[in-house]
Write a structure and sequence with these properties.
The chain is α/β, with parallel strands linked by helices and about 200 residues long. It has a domain of about 140 residues: 2-Layer Sandwich (Nucleotidyltransferase, domain 5). The chain has a five-stranded mixed β-sheet, sandwiched between helices. A hairpin with an 8-residue loop joins strand 1 and strand 2. Helix 1 crosses helix 4. The longest helix has 24 residues. Keywords: Cytoplasm, Endonuclease, Hydrolase, Manganese, Metal-binding, Nuclease. It comes from Zobellia barbeyronii. Its EC number is 3.1.26.4. Its cofactor is Mg(2+); Mn(2+). It is an enzyme of class 3 (hydrolase).
Length: about 200
């Protein structure tokens, strides 16, 4: 059963990102503050949930949380500052969108940069331990998936509706066949035998 990091009533935000390992599309982060006493038996690390369960959880999280924010960082910025910095920037922007300022931030993973003067804690596999990080992981994943579904309509040959921009065999074959788009991350190794940025 997931729990809150602080048992005392405290505005504690959990934050997580989705799409860090993708070849195309944004990296997306969410931040969520849950009320004291919040429980949900379905909520878990978004990677362990089915597409259907994530879609069911999203409106529940949005309606029952104290506050939430979601932010995309797009490929041009990812290429400029690298994916780690872009992931942290996305989390900062998601926290900025919270209507309530958190007193503490817990972050999935092991890397973060201080946000203003709010204390934080990095927690490896935190999305499988704490409810607010799990909730953030669900929002980040569902918002990013929805965005990739829209991009799929523009470039259906990459099948982003299914692979969401991740480096599947099908996605790499499409890059080989059709080349790259404005939504691809040029700083990433888009093909296994790629040298530099020559595509």
């Amino acid at each position: 059963m997931l729990k809150l990091y602080h048992e005392l009533p405290l505005n504690e935000a959990g934050t997580d990102e989705a799409g860090r390992g993708c070849l195309a599309g944004p990296v997306t982060a969410a931040a969520v503050i849950l009320p004291k006493g919040f429980t949900n038996n379905v909520l878990d690390d978004s990677k362990l949930l089915s597409h259907r369960k994530r879609d069911l959880l999203r409106p529940i999280i949005e309606s029952e949380c104290t506050a939430y924010g979601v932010a995309h960082i797009f490929p041009e910025k990812i290429d400029e500052i690298n994916i780690l910095n872009a992931s942290i920037l996305a989390m900062h922007k998601a926290i900025e969108k919270l209507k309530t300022t958190p007193k503490f931030i817990i972050v999935d993973g092991n890397r973060f940069k201080p946000f203003k003067d709010i204390p934080h804690e990095c927690i490896i596999k935190g999305d499988g331990k704490y409810m607010n990080i799990a909730a953030a992981s669900v929002l980040a994943k569902t918002y990013r998936d929805a965005y990739m579904d829209v991009l799929h309509e523009e470039f259906p040959m990459y099948n982003w509706k299914k692979n969401k921009g991740y480096p599947t065999k099908e996605h790499r074959e499409a890059i080989r066949k059709y080349g790259i788009t404005k939504y691809h991350r040029m700083s990433f190794r888009l093909l296994p035998n790629q040298l530099g940025k020559d595509l």
